[in-house]
Write a structure and sequence with these properties.
The structure is a homotrimer of 318-residue chains. With 318 residues, chain A is of the alpha/beta class. In chain A, the strands form two sheets. A five-stranded parallel sheet of chain A has the order 7-6-5-8-9. In chain A, helix 1 packs across helix 5, helix 1 packs across helix 12 and helix 5 crosses helix 6. Chain A is globular and about 55 Å long.
């Protein structure tokens, strides 16, 4: 089976992961997103590109925030959007998941936006569609387990390019719970693909995957050292469910060592930008003053995220 | 009170049940559904027939799947759809249900799609609208208790006609838990109305209603005998809540006796079609190989279901 | 900070409360609502006034009924509506609420319809938008704690004006649990603003706020005496959670003393209208015969409520 994300002409068939996504397509998505940022500034924030298309937000894991970004993006493209919050319990078996998909395909779905607690679920769906010969139906991974969150990775790249321009001269640090973060995986893949020469991950040993160096990153266990002279700081969210777990000290202790404060920020370049995928735990991974400070580009990330999702949806549907 | 489903000119006022629905209207719905199957094949799957109409999906019983089919059908007709998941607890009293209806009528609702655990709830609503003189508001029964699920019955008839043509030459078997099935009731009414000469129900005595023969069916307690030479097999879903109940052995034992396997399927005519209203319990009422086999028309049922619902909605609203 | 509800030209910037809303604006809303009642009578109940606008229904407190009225109003104005049911737990800290708002602003929201259990939450949001310089984003208070429910107050005023005309000649009684009622607060503010000379509140001491006379009302602890010769009776809903509390006897005893029966209604003027914000507890605050009787205008309130919300939304967005 060929790269499941690409159609027979090498165009984008699904967006499942940034791992292995060709550089040209990644750049094409960023390029296509640019004009969509302008749509949002207009009086009528709507384009007829996906009129009459049926997009299903298939959320097997609850995420109001992410669902909203896709819903807004789809509605601004004039698509018909149906939200399905499917409890994982009713689809415990993979077979049952695919029966759900078959049913929605039979309703002439055009696109699935899939969020699932199990790594690989969107791939399973994409492979099933391929086996059924349904190349008219497209899958977007909106976060699967610890695996990938490609639209988040893309909007992060859009943001970096917007503020920093040339990727090939940058030093970028990713800070925090890399081990459990699908966001970090997608970010690293994209940064490698785009030729960022220095990619650092910063965190405690217990929250970094073993052998992560093989992804092409440098590991730092001292935050100040890791931040030294970087151009971009990408903070990760500390999942609430981790906070009281065995892997971590208290949130207060975590903050002391791994939280981004103004003092630590000074180790980075003076024009470094600070990013966060949201929602933030203020006072845990990041100090409020930094989150709201002049170097933070956290809210522009959200804005660019809508444009990037509109770009992906319009590329898939065309 | 006249037939509550018909308006004063004999047209369709509500769709509450297939019991007593005139044959001409039933056939008219099937005829009207045909062009809607083509809409779904188009680039822009949308018609302006219900533009500006307000359709309320009133689900007093949760059913993501059925709600989705009506939502898609309504949106493809350009209606404004509002989903209301009303917990039965807050409307325990019939009075309270009708207060809810009165309120939505006061918001200028055009149509209610009603799912309710209590048999007869959509009738109660239709009668109330009649008493209020609101003949501009229409009710579709999306499943009420054990009573009826008319759009399911209609899409089943559409499917049979699509594959088998003339109803008056067919032998049809309905298999499984007929006792608790609103689907079976709607199917039998429609098959009788359309002149099917041989309608069989197959199942254990504990899961067949007493005196079901009076509906015009033949009863079989031996599945192989019941399937012999039939043209159409309509499997019923075994409700999960029944599976561990007193009426039934284990799912495995049920499957052994009443599950549709390839071996049992051979008793039917070689060109027999296999239907199921979904969602399927694979390995309980049906073997996976049969469900995915060449004779299964289970996914076309879903596709035709959207078209049938579009047809019903457009007939009601016009 | 100037009146947070008004823009720099004195127009409507947010609708947060009727307390301090200038009389001209209040009357303008009522005037603007009138033509929207006619839209609902049309074949196509839709206007393009808010096409391409993104309206977020931000419900931190569950209310299917109120959410539905705003959703219908927004869809009839052709807006894109996104429903967000945000559990208060995830936004326990005010900071977190404002992070949610910042995120939605970054998605180019045009309007927030906010329901919150905490009094003042919509003000907090409005002030935050002001501090961020986002005068392009508007807030409608859909009920905050015990504080205010301005669209309910406005639709009540619309209803009174529709049936009674001149406010300056009226005697109006508000009956029941005034203490916990945001509706009563909004009603009193509006009645005072519109120059109603006689505003009465009727209820037990335990359910009336201390010093309520300072709002410009007369207090009655005898219902018959309070209803004598009034033109308008506005019943309040008895919150279910109060019913078994320490402040109240049983619902039956409450009904006996404070429920509106036909007998008590006779103390009012013969042409008095009976109003209720819904949902009604029949047999608790109001007798069914009165609720469905000739003097009740409870369902017209609902109809006018859609028109008033359309008027507010279109004024804010223009």
């Amino acid at each position: 089976m060929r790269n499941p994300q690409l159609d027979k002409n090498g165009g984008l068939q699904h967006l499942l992961t940034l791992d292995g996504l060709p550089r040209e397509i990644l750049v094409e998505i960023l390029d296509n997103a640019a004009p969509f940022t302008e749509v949002a500034e207009r009086e009528v924030k709507k384009l007829p590109l996906l009129r009459g298309k049926s997009i299903f937000n298939l959320f097997f894991e609850n995420s109001t925030r992410t669902r909203t970004t896709f819903e807004i993006a789809a509605k601004r493209l004039s698509a018909d959007v149906v939200n399905l919050n499917v409890s994982t319990s009713s689809t415990a078996k993979g077979e049952s998941l695919l029966d759900t998909i078959d049913n929605l395909c039979a309703m002439q779905a055009d696109m699935f936006v899939v969020r699932h607690a199990a790594s690989g679920a969107p791939f399973l769906i994409a492979r099933h569609l391929y086996e059924q010969g349904r190349d008219d139906i497209h899958v977007i991974n909106a976060g699967d387990g610890r695996h990938a969150h490609p639209t988040q990775g893309l909007l992060d790249m859009y943001t970096i390019r917007h503020y920093k321009g040339d990727f090939t001269k940058l030093s970028v640090a990713i800070v925090g719970d890399v081990l459990h973060s699908r966001v970090a995986r997608s970010q690293i893949c994209a940064l490698v693909t785009l030729g960022v020469p220095e990619i650092r991950v910063i965190g405690p040993k217990t929250l970094l995957p073993t052998e992560i160096e093989k992804m092409g990153v440098r590991v730092f266990h001292d935050m100040r050292e890791g931040l030294r002279d970087v151009d971009v700081i990408m903070m990760l969210r500390l999942q609430n469910e981790r906070m009281n777990g065995a892997l971590l000290p208290t949130p207060q202790e975590f903050y002391k060592v791994w939280g981004l404060t103004g003092e630590k920020l000074e180790y980075a370049r003076p024009d470094a930008i600070v990013m966060h995928p949201g929602p933030m735990n203020r006072g845990v991974e990041i100090d409020s003053a930094v989150a709201d400070g002049a170097q933070a580009v956290i809210l522009p990330q959200v804005t660019f995220g809508i444009a990037v999702r509109m770009a992906v949806m319009s590329m898939l549907a065309s």
